[in-house]
Structures are given as C-alpha cells and as structure tokens.
Amino acid sequence: MSETRSQVLIVEDEAQIRHFVRLALEADGCVVQEAGRLADGLLIAGAGAIDLVVLDLGLPDGDGIDFIRAYRGWSDGPVLILSARTEERHKIDALDAGADDYLTKPFGVGELRARVRALMRRRQRAGGEVSPLLEFGDIVVDLAKRQVWRKGEAVHLTPIEYRLLAMMVSHPGQVLTQRRLLAEIWGASYIESSHYLRVYVGHLRQKLEDDPAQPRHFLTETGVGYRFQTGT
Amino acid sequence: MSETRSQVLIVEDEAQIRHFVRLALEADGCVVQEAGRLADGLLIAGAGAIDLVVLDLGLPDGDGIDFIRAYRGWSDGPVLILSARTEERHKIDALDAGADDYLTKPFGVGELRARVRALMRRRQRAGGEVSPLLEFGDIVVDLAKRQVWRKGEAVHLTPIEYRLLAMMVSHPGQVLTQRRLLAEIWGASYIESSHYLRVYVGHLRQKLEDDPAQPRHFLTETGVGYRFQTGT
DNA sequence: GGAATTGTTTACGACTTTTTTACACGGAAG
DNA sequence: CTTCCGTGTAAAAAAGTCGTAAACAATTCC
Fold first, then answer.
1. Hey, what CATH topology would domain A133-228 get?
2. Using CA atoms, how far apart are residues A194 and B88, in angstroms rounded to an integer?
3. What digits encode the pLDDT tens for the residues B108-150?
4. Using an 8 Å Cβ cutoff, are A9 and A35 in contact?
5. Helix count and strand count (H, E) for chain B
6. Are B35 and B55 in contact (CB under 8 A)?
7. Please, what is the average pLDDT of chain A?
8. Domain map (residue ranges) of chain B
9. How far apart are CA B222 and CA A47, in angstroms?
10. Which of A48, A102, A152, B19 has the most CB atoms lying inside 10 A of its own CB?
C-alpha cells in the first residue's frame, strides 16, 4: 500500500456489517466500495479495478458460489468469503470454486484485517513476478490494470465489453459457449438472449480487429459460441 | 497437479497429527515430508523443492513465528498455520509475520485439504493450462478447446460434424452402431434415418482423410455402423 | 438539468447449417 | 445378367443463425 491504495469491494446485504467491514479496511488504507446484491457486485467488479473482493455467501438474490465462478471468468484477484455458515461442506465448496479464504461470522475485526493484509501481500508479490501483459498480435491486454491497447493506442471499452474481452483472452483458443458467456456476464437468467453476444462481439471486433468483417481473433463457431484466436 | 506432484512440508511435534495431515494431503496427490522440530523443519525447507509448508505454532523448541520470518527470508512459498491457539492476537501475529492462512485445532480434514488446494491453485495460476491432445496420424483433436487440426491446419467443423467426430474418437477402434450414433447425435426418434450418417461421415472424410474415397480412419462396417481406426 | 455514455431492443439482409432429394456405384443373391 | 440393398457423393431447398445499423431507454457525468 505504498502509492496506490488498494480497492476493495464488499458484497454483503446487511448494511451494518458492510459499514463495519468498511471501517476496518479503511483503517488499513483501503478504498472501499459496497454492493448489497450479487448483481450490483458483479457490475462494480467488472467496471472498476478491484484488488480484492469480500463476499458474503448468504445473499438474497443468488448464490455466492455463482459470483465466485463468474468473477473467476475474468479475474484472478483474491476473494475472501464471509459467511454465517460454519459447516465444512460450505467452506470446501467455496474454496474449490475459487475463493482464497473463508471466515465465519462472528469474526474479529483484527483477524479480518490480518487476513486481508495477507491476501494483499501475496497478490503484490505475484504481480511482481509475472508480467500481466497479454499480447495477441496488435492487441495488448493488462488484466490487472483493466487496460487495452491496439497498435500502441489505448482502446476504451465499456464494462460489458471489457468483461467479454477478459473472459475470452483468459481462455485463448477455446470455444466459449454462448450459454456460458451469457451466464457469466449477464447472469443465469440470460442464457437464451444470444443476441446480446452478437451485439457485443460486434463491438469488440469493431474496436480491436483490423477488418471487423473478417475477424482474425474473435471467431464465430456458428451454433456453439465464440473462440478467441491468439495467433496472427 | 498435472505432472510434478506438489511437495509439502509438515512441521508439527505430535506424531499423530503429522500422520493425520500426511494422509489427508497424500489423498490429493501431494508428496509429504515431516519434521517434528522447528530446526529440522528449517533444514528441510532450506534444501529447497518445498511448495507449501504446514506449520504448527506450538512447538517445544521455539516460536513458530520465528520460523515464518526465517522462511520468508528466502522463500515466498505459501505457509498454512495449524494451531491450538484460538485467540485473535495469535492469528494476527502469524498472518502479519508472513503466513497465508491460519486454521485452529480441531479442524476438519476436508477444510484443510480445500485450503491447501486454494493456496496451491493461486501458486500455479501463472503457468498456462495445457489441455490433452488426441492424435491420430495427421489428425489432432483437442476436446477441451473444441478444436481439430489436420496436418497442422485448423479444420472447421459444424456442430453435428464435431459431435460425430467426438463420439468416434472417444471410442477408438470400436464399432459404433448406426442406431447408437443416431440416437446420441440426433435423438432417439432418428434411429432409422441412417442416411444422415452417410452424409455426415462423408463430410468428415472429405475434411479429414487424405483420400476420402479410400478412408483410413473412418471405416464403414456394412450393415452395422462405423469404426474409427486410430492407426496411421 | 442537460449532454454524453452505456445498455437494451428491434429489424432485416447475408450467411451457415441442416435436411431433403436425386442419382451413381458395387457387391450379393437369385 | 439382372435385381436388390446398402452405400457414397453432390447439390437443391429449408431452416436456422449471425452481423450490423439504428432507435430507444437507462444511466452516468458535468
């Protein structure tokens, strides 16, 4: 936490706990954003440069496990679970879905802060080792900074465009089915709205392909989904 | 844990718990080394090749915190604390000294394994995942990416063509009856429409065989079905 | 409050895939 | 030799999918 302060997102329905966590983390110099529902949380996480997510599993508008899976679709950032569920089964499921730590309520504020510090420390160390720049022909993507360049020029992407791109570059060469893309970007209730994908893949091709009509990276697999091709 | 198995070091004075942890982690494919004292633990860890340390804080020959500090002097590898001490102060101190996770005794074996998997996952994420390739002469199939190559060149297949190919390469050398292929690809009500198969096997031969008229992989078993021959 | 940006929805032509139709080939049985 | 059956190609028609532009609604930003 030397120059840029860490951005933390809290996804939690109880305003009281949100506030409690916010105070705890701000004491360590974090910048905190709050979301009361999973859908809002995904929106914020997709829109901004979030360094760490603190997630309550028991939210009213959906299962927190689904949030982890969706988030993991485009981000490797640490996720700490807060939950009232103490059963081992829940912990295992959350950790295996991609969470990094699991803290059961009630928890001590000091322990929460220490665990957040541990995750942040590990994150910064990992960032130093590996270059976060992904390069594909003319396209360069920095997933950590949420920035995209084409032929050296910065490209502006909207939140949805960015999440779609991040999902695709995170699975190079692989076909991502329409159902999966829709479920992880718009939510499980949108798996039939495939026209959204046509519109937004179109946007990405417009902004990132040399010839949008003859895409070389964002390939269509008719009837199945889309494939991000890394090669030239 | 793709090729090289993870090396785990357990530093713990009670032989019973050591054995318990060893069994738990070996079940996940880890290679486990044990140390009963901090000094022995440092010696083993110092020899290198350790991917993760499971450390009991309450050892007779010294403070576990000192172990963490010493270990952090040369390694960034993950450290998971096991401890009978439940007080928050101890957790905070251990985490701030460089530990990555803190589990209080008694703990569930499932949770321990899940937390170890979470730490390992984060460690290995930098390395790209490799999906298994099926190779048959000139033909290479990547079922995970849904991609097919012939003599190094990508081959485009329609959904039905791909499902037919996937079925055949999944049962190499085996005769698949027309009824079975039709039922699995088109549905149970199509088991008499054997003529679809002629069309689509024809497509596959056209796209993947050297001489479609003299197929070497997609063989006809007249009156029965088709066989996928793996050999050259 | 107004302007700019972003997300959603609609419409339609172009394109891909599937289904259907037609016909030629070749071996086995009569 | 002819007939029949299962088979292999080709190409049509039909069905389904995709890409784009543009209008509208919601949201954000000044």
1. Arc Repressor Mutant, subunit A (1.10.10)
2. 50
3. 999 999 999 999 988 766 555 677 899 999 999 999 999 999 9
4. yes
5. 8, 12
6. no
7. 89
8. 7-127, 133-228
9. 59
10. A102
Looking at chain B from residue 60 to 119, which residues have their Cβ under 8 Å from any Cβ of chain A? 76, 78, 88-89, 91-92, 95-96, 98-102, 108, 110-111, 113-115, 117-118
Smallest Cβ distance to B122: which of A100, A117, A130? A100
Q: Tell if B186 CB is < 7 Å from nucleic strand C.
A: yes
Residue with the two structure tokens 């640490």: A78
Q: Is the CB of A220 under 7 A from strand D?
A: yes
Q: Are A34 and A22 in contact (CB under 8 A)?
A: yes
Assess whether A156 (CB) lies less than 7 A from strand C.
Answer: yes
What the block records as the tokens of A134 is 């992904």
Structure tokens given for A110: 């000091």
Report the residue count for chain A: 232
| Secondary element (H or E) of residue B54 | strand B52-56
Report the half-sphere exposure of B39 (CA within 13 A, side-chain side).
Answer: 3
CA distance B229 to B214: 13
- Total Cβ atoms within 10 A of residue A226: 23
Q: What is the pLDDT of residues A151-196, one digit of tens each?
A: 999 999 999 999 999 999 999 999 999 999 999 999 888 999 999 9
Question: Element (H or E) spanning A159, and its range?
Answer: helix A159-169
Can you spell out the DSSP letters for A38-71?
HHHHHHHHHHS--SEEEEES--TTS-HHHHHHHH
Whether the bond into A106 is cis, omega within 30 of 0: yes
Single out the residue of B196, B190, B205 nearest to residue B157, CA to CA: B205
Tokens of B226: 């088709």
Residue whose tokens read 């928050």: B88
Q: Shortest CA distance to A176 belongs to which of A200, A157, A147?
A: A200
* CATH number listed for the domain at residues B7-127: 3.40.50.2300
End-to-end CA distance of chain A: 39
Three-state DSSP at A195 gives helix
CA gyration radius for chain B?
A: 27
- 3-class secondary-structure state, position B121: helix
Q: Could you count the other beta carbons within 10 Å of the beta carbon of residue B13?
A: 15
Helix/strand/coil for A141: strand
B 108-147 residues inside an 8 A Cβ radius of A: 108, 110-111, 113-115, 117-118, 121-122, 125-126, 131, 144-147
Q: What is the pLDDT of residues B152-203, one digit of tens each?
A: 999 999 999 999 999 999 999 999 999 999 999 999 999 999 999 999 999 9
Q: Give the amino acid at A85.
A: R
